Amino acid sequence: MEPLDILISVVMLCLAVYFLLDRRFQYWTDRGVPQSKPELVFGNVREVSRTIHLADKFREIYNELKGKHPLVGVYLFFKPVALITDLELLKCVFVKDFQYFHDRGTYYNEKHDPLTAHLFNIEGQKWKNLRNKLSPTFTSGKMKMMFSTIVAAGKQFKDFMEETVHEQVDFELKDVLARFTTDVIGMCAFGIECNSMRNPDAEFRVMGRKIFSKPRGKVKSLVINSLPRLAKLIGLRTLDSEVSDFFMNAVRDTIKYRVENNVQRNDFMDILIRMRSDKDTKSDDGTLTFHEIAAQAFVFFVAGFETSSSLMAFTLYELALDQDMQDKARKCVTDVLERHNGELTYEAAMEMDYLDCVLKECLRKHPPISVHFRITAKDYIVPGTNSVLEAGTSVMIPVLGIHHDPEHFPEPERFDPERFTAEQESKRHPYAWTPFGEGPRICVGPRFGLLQARIGLIYLLTSFRFVRCSKTPVPLRYALKNQILSPEAGMWLKLEKLNEV
What we know:
By secondary structure, the chain is of the alpha+beta class. The protein has 19 helices and 9 strands. The chain starts with a helix and ends with a strand.
């Protein structure tokens, strides 16, 4: 073939690919849905993880197009995604028409990456069965049983901070908060004293960092998002093999020790062990295989330590910027403790209403889970429109965008816990605030996450005053490569020891 013929063939092929991609990026326009302008190959996510967080990108698109249609169209690489902008449609997705949206559509690979086949990811009847088994784990009764374990970790946390602050005033809190939550969940999920508070290089803490410090490459993300079946077929993993091996061994050793020594601790692992099958990889009798137990323990660890530590870091940041608010939160804590003779009981922790409002407002302004995912199980006619969400279409909820919409939360950048008094909540659309999701697929463990955050803050607020310092990030920026919202450069605050009464 002549060089000119080769050149013409290459040009024709490139043009064909270009027009195919361009046609693909007309998907939403062809269906009468407003769409954000995509870029070739990357769709709407070219700058995501490089200059902007996905949550902020979706917030931009939400603000640009909301009100034009109950949903807007975006593209993750070549993949069309419906971004919900109307709260009534959100109610349909979460609850009213749940039968169309019962799965998240998030990638997992049970064969090659078994720890990813956990409650957050799995689908269909298997999810339903597992959810029914695990839901009783997080009742208020079970929280009371775990309460003393969390309080013990809180006391160790307080002692460590008091010792350390003698040597250091300006303090990076994000890592030490993650070490606290790692210790709590290590005890409650694995019955293991991680000791990461005093040893930042403890194995559980090191593995926790690795989970979030190794983001997927662009090529892997493209294949997983655009061709998930191919990704499973070729064995693409999302977890580092060292992390996977560590958690598999930790769960195996924990089960072996408890069974052989008849150890019961009234914690998450006990409940999983009671459902245990003797099989490693497949069970059809309603019990849990070893891989299933390991996956649930893993997601409990991952979801609990990072989200709760980020929530606590953001809360202390906002309180450091408003000393009056911090004083009010501290007074709420001390007043309740006085009523309970200075003892931190479960009932006392639940009575701290203003602290609860502070945490809820922080979850509004800085929701750790800033985007919710669903996938359409069968063709769905969007109520009030002629638009159809075809089976297999990904649906995403821009939590950060909705939480910062002045229509639902006036002056959204202002931190105001009073938004969450019972009176104010009753005036607001019930789906304007969804940090944990909603409906049958709501997060299974918000009670636990909020409880450990509440206990950590109780000990900190009664021991220290938090003040901004020269290293405090104002304005706050989010870490771009972490899917869970967290501060970009840690959380530096000045700590002042309070005089003991």
